[in-house]
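Quick one, probably user error.
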């Protein structure tokens, strides 16, 4: 059950970033304007999209999962503080807590790795990924 749950956990965490990055491509100008309104340089949007899509895919595949999860955890915390710190607004408070919860899950991957059904495990030959 551990192999299955770690894979599902990585998929659930990774897909959030993958879909968020893809949605930013479809609304590039709007996202860039929102970032600038919040005091973040809009020219960083390409890097954000790259981190979200690349990190989401890497996490799902279990490739360099500890490093990827650590970077995405930091990104989630910074995003919460910059974009969702208006805790007087119920929706922003929920988004703030969601980002911190995601960061918590990512820190588990940072600590314990991607699990048996991952590229990391396959490359290290530490486990038989077929069982």
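Nope, works fine. Designed sequence:
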């Amino acid at each position: 059950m551990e192999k299955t749950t770690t894979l599902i956990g990585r998929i659930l965490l990774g897909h959030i970033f993958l879909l968020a990055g893809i949605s930013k491509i479809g609304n590039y100008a709007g996202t860039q304007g929102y970032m600038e309104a919040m005091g973040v340089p809009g020219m960083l949007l390409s890097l954000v999209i790259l981190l979200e899509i690349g990190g989401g895919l890497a996490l799902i595949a279990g490739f360099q999962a500890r490093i990827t999860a650590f970077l995405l955890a930091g990104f989630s915390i910074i995003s919460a503080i910059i974009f969702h710190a208006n805790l007087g607004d119920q929706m922003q408070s929920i988004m703030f807590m969601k980002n911190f919860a995601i960061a918590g899950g990512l820190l588990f991957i940072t600590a314990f790795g991607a699990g048996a059904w991952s590229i990391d495990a396959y490359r290290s030959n530490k486990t038989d990924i077929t069982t």
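The chain has one domain: 2-124.
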